[in-house]
Design brief:
By secondary structure, this protein is an alpha+beta fold. The protein has two domains: 34 residues, no CATH class; 76 residues, no CATH class. The chain contains three helices and four strands. The protein has a four-stranded antiparallel sheet with strand order 2-1-3-4. A hairpin with a 4-residue loop joins strand 1 and strand 2. The chain is elongated, with a radius of gyration of 24 Å.
C-alpha cells in the first residue's frame, strides 16, 4: 500500500511540475518504468530475428553505398518499377534544353525520394508527439 502511494505521489508531482494531462498508465509505462528500471510485463519487445534496421542503404551513382535515414545530398540510384533511376539533389543549368529537362527529372526524382522517407517517418513522429508531454 505504501509503494502505491509513493507511485501516485510521483505521478501527481509529474503532472504538477510539467503542467500536463496524461493518463496514469501512459505515464507509468513511458516515464516511471524507464526511470526506475522496472520490468513492465506489457512492453512489446522487438524480435531480433524479424526486426530490421530503420536506416536505409542508398546506392550512389559512383557505386558506393551510404547508410542513412534520409537520402544523402549526392547523386543516387534508386530502384523503381524494376528499373534503376538516377536522382540528383542539385544540377547546374545549361543551354541545352534536352539536358535541362533530364536534370529537372533527376531533381524531381530526388525530391520525391525525400518526401517518401519523410512520409514513412510521419506516423512515428506523430505518435511520439501525441504521447510525449511538452
Amino acid at each position: 500500500m505504501k509503494e502505491r502511494h509513493e507511485i501516485q505521489k510521483c505521478f501527481y508531482n509529474f503532472i504538477t511540475l510539467h503542467k500536463v494531462q496524461i493518463l496514469f498508465l501512459s505515464w507509468f509505462k513511458s516515464f516511471y518504468v524507464t526511470e526506475y528500471y522496472i520490468t513492465y510485463p506489457f512492453t512489446k519487445h522487438a524480435c531480433p530475428i524479424t526486426s530490421r534496421s530503420k536506416t536505409f542503404v542508398w546506392e550512389l551513382v559512383s557505386g558506393a553505398s551510404i547508410e542513412s535515414k534520409h537520402p544523402p545530398l549526392r547523386n543516387l540510384k534508386i530502384p523503381h518499377n524494376s528499373q534503376t533511376l538516377d536522382v540528383a539533389p542539385y544540377k547546374n543549368l545549361s543551354d541545352d534544353i534536352t539536358t535541362n529537362t533530364k536534370n529537372i527529372i533527376k531533381h524531381n526524382n530526388f525530391t520525391n525520394t525525400n518526401l517518401n522517407t519523410i512520409g514513412k517517418q510521419h506516423p512515428v513522429l506523430t505518435q511520439i508527439h501525441q504521447t510525449t508531454p511538452l
